[in-house]
Amino acid sequence: ALRLNAEGPLVGAPLPRSFSAAFNPVATARAEGVAMVTALGQPVSYTQIHASARHLVHRMSGLMKPDAPAVAVLSARTVECVAAQLACFLGGWTFVPLDPAWPLARVVQVLAAAKPSIVLTQTPALAAAVASATSAHGVATMALGDLLTAPTGDATEAPLPALARDPAYLI
Length: 171
Known about the structure:
The protein has 171 residues and is an alpha/beta fold. The protein contains 5 helices and 7 strands; from the N terminus they run βαββαβαβαβαβ. The strands form 2 sheets. The protein has a 4-stranded parallel β-sheet with strand order 5-4-6-7, with helices on both faces. Strands 1-2-3 form a 3-stranded antiparallel β-sheet. Helix 5 links the parallel strand 6 (118-121) and strand 7 (140-143). The longest helix has 16 residues, at 46-61. Residues 1-6 and 154-159 have low confidence and may be disordered.
């Protein structure tokens, strides 16, 4: 289980036009502050989670289809899952949460209804199973891997297109 930091949001600024405009200043202001704590008690800083999410946005950008701006995430509640959800919001894509405890048939049923461009999974084996089951739908699959150690380079500074009118999640 993850715990969010108990500190409240920054106040006094006008309402931002995008999620990126709202989150980026918080991540910058609290760079080395604890954004969350893993189930094992390891702190994760705003810098770490923000860099991981932005790295994932840039990895996914080329795979997104204009007519399918959704990303399904099939993962337990981990830091990588939070980074994936944050990446969806930063990228302006709809987040579709999937429970790894569901049978594969249920996952495929939800994917057929949601029509995401990408399915992110917790492990490569799960990515392979989903890819095999959804091959006829043309859905890209990726394993989240260890995003906290992923190289970030210039990808952390590129502007991202999330707007207030974009859907946030689909259930």
